[in-house]
Amino acid sequence: MSTAKKSISERFLEVVELLKEKGFIKSYSDFYHTIGISGQKFHDIKKGRRFATIDMLHDMQAEGYPISLKYIVNGEGMPLESLAPAKGDLQQILNGQNIKPVIVTVDKAGQDNIVMVDTKAAAGYLRGFDDVEYFKDLPAFTLPGPEFRNATFRCFEVEGDSMEEVIFHKDWVIGKYIENFNYIKEGYVYVVVTNEGIVVKRVFNKIKEDESLLLVSDNDQYPPYKVDVREVRELWYVARKLSSYLPSGKSDTNRQIAELHNSFLELKNEVRELKTAK
Q1: Could you tell me the CA-to-CA distances from 192 to 43, 197, 224 in Å, in that order?
Q2: What are 216's strand-pairing partners?
Q3: Is the pLDDT of residue 268 over 90?
């Protein structure tokens, strides 16, 4: 019996770590307080001095953690149930009820900061997107103008060339938080945060057709694809971009052509002089 209990406890701890990795658990203390056990009891389970109980597992389910009792108890199936809400919750998604409010930080004047998420920070974004401490460590700034008031904004670094010739590798885009999928502007650029990561794409609303969003790149080398709307964790309308890419102007191009022409004439004269010397 103790062997079975030990195995259940080991799978319980495995699932807890997976929940923490996926962002469902912000800290161990939050977790064990949520399911109503003491820190000492949780520590004892980790050390093998106590076993996880069925009551604890039921409490986890009651608190909404997407765990699989079948896996924890019998080792069968996957550790977590589907991370997406059930099909019956689609109308709630349409009404914006399943999109979690984002964390904001403020400056000394009490104005909302625009937090910057670079490509390195993006790796931990899904685990920390509802963790205040995670955002405290990220750089932030504010922008003047009424268009940056009365809404939540976030700045993301772009990786890759899928949105060229509009947005380039290492550009930054400033996104306005969208609380309701009904507010999507067809064909506009959004930052889409899913369980798989963060992408910048043009978005087309296909929820009524097949409960998905169609994501389209500006670079034809990348084919369009769909994501289940219930996999979307956050949606940000790209309102501005910050770019270091400055294409040559017409005058610069003309100057470059003139320089090439002069170089060609100089080379032609040198060849003529060599022939004459012979």
Answers
A1: 37, 8, 14
A2: 202
A3: no
Q: Which amino acid is at 106?
A: V
Sheet holding 225-228, edge to edge: 140-141, 114-117, 153-157, 172-177, 232-242, 188-194, 197-206, 212-216, 225-228
> Which pLDDT tens digit goes with each residue over 148-207?
877 789 999 999 999 998 999 999 999 999 988 888 999 999 999 987 889 999 999 998
Partner residues linked to 236 by β-bridges: 177, 191
pTM: 0.60
Q: Are 119 and 159 in contact (CB under 8 A)?
A: yes
3-class secondary-structure state, position 55:
helix
3-state helix, strand, coil in the chain (%, to 5): 40, 20, 40
User: And the tokens for 205?
Assistant: 């609303």
Alpha carbon distances (Å) from 235 to 24, 47, 232: 19, 41, 7
What's the Rg (C-alpha) of the chain? 27
Extract the tokens encoding 255: 């100057």
Nearest-angstrom CA–CA distance, 201 and 204:
10
3-state secondary structure labels for all residues of 139-174: CEECCCCHHHCCCCEEEEECCCCCCCCCCCCCCEEE
Question: Structure tokens of 155?
Answer: 């700045």
Which helix or strand (DSSP H or E) is residue 190 part of?
A: strand 188-194
- H or E element: which one contains 39? helix 39-47
